Each structure stands twice: as C-alpha cells, then as structure tokens.
Amino acid sequence: MGKVAVGTAVVCAAAACVAAALVVRHRTRSSGKWGRATAIAKELEEQCWTPISKLRQVADALDVEMHAGLASEGGCKLKMLITYVDNLPSGDEKGLFYALDLGGTNFRTLRVHLGGKEKGVVKIESEEVSIPPHLMTGSSQELFDFIASKLAKFVSSEPEELHPPPGRQRELGFTFSFPVKQTSIASGTLIKWTKGFNIEDAVGEDVVGGLTKSLEKIGLDMRVAALVNDTVGTVARARFSNQDVIAGVILGTGTNAAYVECAHAIPKWQGLLPKSGEMVINMEWGNFCSSHLPLTEYDQALDAESLNPGEQIFEKIVSGMYLGDIVRRVLLKMAEEVDFFGDTVPPKLRIPFVLRTPDMSAMHHDTSSDLKVVGNKLKDILEINNTSLKTRKIVVELCDIVATRGARLSAAGIFSILKKIGRDTVKDGKKQKSVVALDGGLFEHYAKFRSSLESTLKELLGDEADETVGIEHSNDGSGIGAALLAASNSQYLGVQES
C-alpha cells in the first residue's frame, strides 16, 4: 500500500473515531438531559402529592378557619361574609324577573320567566353590552346612567302579555362581581374596584343606591330585590330545581364557595335570626392558606410576582387563571437547566401567562399516538418546533401533576363544607342528601380535572358517598341565579303570576 493510501486510511480512521466520540458524547448528554428533566418532573410530583391523609389535614385547617371567620370580622384567612340571603328559591316562584350581571368590561341583562315547580324556568332572554373604556374611570353616575339606559332598552322589548299589572314594580337581581360589604339583601358598599375599573367616587358608597338613582332618573319603575355574588347565585340556581342543594362552588378563572349555614352557628351575626333559620355564607375561600397546602417553588415564585403577593394562595394553586402558568414555569426551569428544548431557551417561554389553562387542558387530553395536539400547542404558543414524542410525554405528565393537585384540593375544600354543616337530618326514613352545585369553565370543560375532583371526593367520603352526597353542574348563577334570588326575595311573595 502506498504512503498516500496509508495516510488516507489513518485520516479516515481518526475521523471515524471523532465521529464515534461525538455520537457517544451526544448520547451521554441526551441521556443526562432526559434524566435531569425526569428528575425535575419527579420532584414536582412529590411536592404536589396529595394523599388522603394530607387532604384531610387541609380540610381540617379549612374547618378551623371557617369557625374563626364566622366568629369575628377581620384578621381571618376566610372572610365568611354574611350575604343576607336567608330565603333561597323554593321552586314555587312564578312570574317575570330581571337580572343585571356586572363583572367586567361587559355586562349582561337577562329576563327570566318562571313557571313554578310544574314548568320551572320557562324562558330566558339576554343581551350583552360592552362598557366604553372612559366609563370605567369616570364617575359612578355616568356608569350607572349608561347601565340604566341599556337596561331600559332591554325592558322595552318585553312582551306585552308579560307586563306587570298597574302598581307593581319589576324586580331585579343585581350581580356585582367586585368586593362589596353587604349591608342587607339589597344593599352593599363598594370596598374597591378590580378588573380595570377605577371610579373613585363609588368607593364606600352603596352600589344599589347608585343604580336606583339612575333608574329613577329615566323613569324605569324597577326595584333591586337582591344584590348577589356569583357564587351565591350558583346556590340559588341549583336550589330552584333541587332543594337538597347546600353549597355552590365556582371553579373557573378564579375560585370561591358559598354554602347554607345554620343562623345559630354564626356568632358574629348581630341581627334578628331569620325565619328560615338559615343564612348563605360567602366563604371567599380563594384566600385560604395553610402549612398543609402542598406548595412548590413555582407557586412561591408565581405568588411573589403577582399583583397580590401573600393573598389568594388557595386560588393560585387551584383555579384556571394560574394552572397553565405553573406548567410554564416548570418547563422554563427545564429549558434553562437541562436544555429541554435545545441549546437556547425559547423566548416565549419567559412570558408570564402565555400558556393558558385551556391550552394546558387540550394537551392533557391529547389521545393521539404521536401527541400531535401537544406538538401543535408548543409550536403555536411557545414557537417550539420539532419536539420529540419523549418531550411531549413529559409535558403531558406535568399537566397531569398540576391539574390533579388542583382538583384534589378542590375536593378537600368541598369535603370541609360537608364536614362543617353535618347534615345528619333524616327525611322519609333516609339520611338527607347534600348536593353541591358547581360552575365555572375549569369544572365544565376540563374533563380530567372534573373526574379527579369527583373521584377524590368519593375517597374522602367513603362508602356512603353516592347515597348522601351529590355533585351537579349549575350553569349561570351570576345571571339566572340573580333573577331567582330576586324572585325568592320579591316584595310580592305569594302573589306571583305565571
């Protein structure tokens, strides 16, 4: 063999050795990457672990806070607000009632025709109106004048045969989804604005009084019969058709719960005991916090960077506003520490809330063999291309860990309510059933979240779960529920017309 041939062979052999070394190094790095990524996922799973023993501790801590909040105002993690709703729908309500649902940059007007036990909710008509931006920072009179004018226009479309008889006012349920200190069933003072509103002259004033002045100004003869929180409306919506309903829970962008409490069990209640002996309590449970909650470094970072650090901790690990961002934060750590998506960190992954919970849900429910939905979401939202099946599987695993924790903690919250009120009453020879009404996009549309919540509640309740406790979906408590509360608190009780 000539010198040239020998030299070429040596060069080729050396190149082959280098190539082999690079392959080994790549495999080692790749193996190390997956090992570290898996370790991060495993650590998250351990920190989010919610065995039944821990859930019972969470429920016990909630129970303690419930008692404290019912005993005194202020200083409690749970506000346990007295709603003045002591007369929930019986199912007998008949007639035409209106609702106004103000909770953001839009508001809804609703007309609800009730037909009692025989016909139930006969007909619902509604209209949505956008609030001009300048009215969100102007004066309260301008805002309420605008709302009153739109409400009057909606009322003008009322069918003639449903007009109230002479001398009878139309009645309205007013859902006002901002922090309010309720002072009666139909009055409450605004504590502060949220959601982009900043109308200074309304703070500390009665919001029903403001709306009523505007209604009177344009000659609309309508009375606000109930000032409503959407969670309380959820209880009312469900109670109209099922008298076993004892609580309502919102699991959507945010989370909250309300339940029917025995009036004697509210030490801070200073008024006369209601004839019904009951009072609906708005828990504001999103603000619950306890050392028993399974918090992670990602939750702590999210809280520290939020608009309200140290507040709404339960909401931040349970509700739809935050679940997707917790997953994003874990993926960001994987990208930064183990090159999970390649040598560079995808810029979009650094944007808070870029990964929404509906997107997380879509990835979690992906049943395709190649997890195509996951791949498309990573590409469309985070601009991460060409992900491997292995990568996609880890993403699904993270979604499952975060959603399962939220669902199981929600179940613990419901369990604490059932535990607090007891419900040992025997009716027709059977122990009275307790039904919890749920609403919100997280419960309605995130199937794996919902099934995990329901199965966890059965675990907590034991063998008698199906016989003594029920879960049902109660749609639109903020709208229909408000109209129903106007009906059950009508000044014409007993004389409603169908």
From TrEMBL:
Q: Does the keyword tRNA processing apply?
A: no
Catalytic activity, EC: 2.7.1.-
Tell me which residues make up the Hexokinase N-terminal domain: 41-238
Give all residue intervals belonging to the Hexokinase C-terminal domain. 247-487
- Pathway(s) annotated for this protein in UniProt: Carbohydrate metabolism; hexose metabolism; Carbohydrate degradation; glycolysis; D-glyceraldehyde 3-phosphate and glycerone phosphate from D-glucose: step 1/4
- Can you list the GO cellular component terms from the UniProt entry? cytosol; mitochondrial outer membrane; mitochondrion
Main location group: mitochondrion
Q: Which InterPro entries match?
A: ATPase_NBD, Hexokinase, Hexokinase_C, Hexokinase_N
Q: How does it sit in the membrane?
A: Single-pass membrane protein
> Which SUPFAM superfamilies did the record assign?
Actin-like ATPase domain (SSF53067)
Which GO BP terms apply? glucose 6-phosphate metabolic process; glucose metabolic process; glycolytic process; intracellular glucose homeostasis
**Top-level lineage group:** Eukaryota
Keywords (alphabetical) are:
ATP-binding, Glycolysis, Kinase, Membrane, Mitochondrion, Mitochondrion outer membrane, Nucleotide-binding, Transferase
Q: Where does it localize? A: Mitochondrion outer membrane
Any one GO molecular function term? fructokinase activity
Family the UniProt entry places it in: Belongs to the hexokinase family.
In Swiss-Prot or TrEMBL terms, this protein is called Phosphotransferase
